[in-house]
Amino acid sequence: MAKIKVTQIKSVIDRSERQKKTMQALGLNKINQSVEVEASPAIIGMVRKVNHLVAVESI
C-alpha cells in the first residue's frame, strides 16, 4: 500500500472528544508533529474526520 505523511497543523483544544481520540489514534499529539502511515481505508477515514486539523502528503 501507499504511504501518506500526516502533519498536525491545528490544535485540538475546543474540539470534540471524538476528534481528540482520532488524532491520538493517528499518533499526533503536538502541532507540527508528523507521522508516516499506510494509506489503508481505516486511516483514510480517520484523516477525513479531522481534515481541518491536519495536512496530508503522499509519499
From TrEMBL:
Q: Which residues form the Large ribosomal subunit protein uL30-like ferredoxin-like fold domain?
A: 4-54
**Gene Ontology MF, one:** structural constituent of ribosome
UniProt keywords (A-Z) are: Ribonucleoprotein, Ribosomal protein
Matching InterPro entries, A to Z?
Answer: Ribo_uL30_ferredoxin-like_sf, Ribosomal_uL30_bac-type, Ribosomal_uL30_CS, Ribosomal_uL30_ferredoxin-like
Source species, domain of life: Bacteria
Q: Cellular component terms, GO, for this chain's entry?
A: cytosolic large ribosomal subunit
- Alphabetical GO biological process terms: translation
Per the record, the similarity remark reads: Belongs to the universal ribosomal protein uL30 family.
> PANTHER family per the record?
LARGE RIBOSOMAL SUBUNIT PROTEIN UL30M (PTHR15892:SF2), MITOCHONDRIAL RIBOSOMAL PROTEIN L30 (PTHR15892)
Subunit relationships = Part of the 50S ribosomal subunit.
Q: What is this protein called?
A: Large ribosomal subunit protein uL30
Species source reads Hufsiella ginkgonis
Organism lineage string: Bacteria, Pseudomonadati, Bacteroidota, Sphingobacteriia, Sphingobacteriales
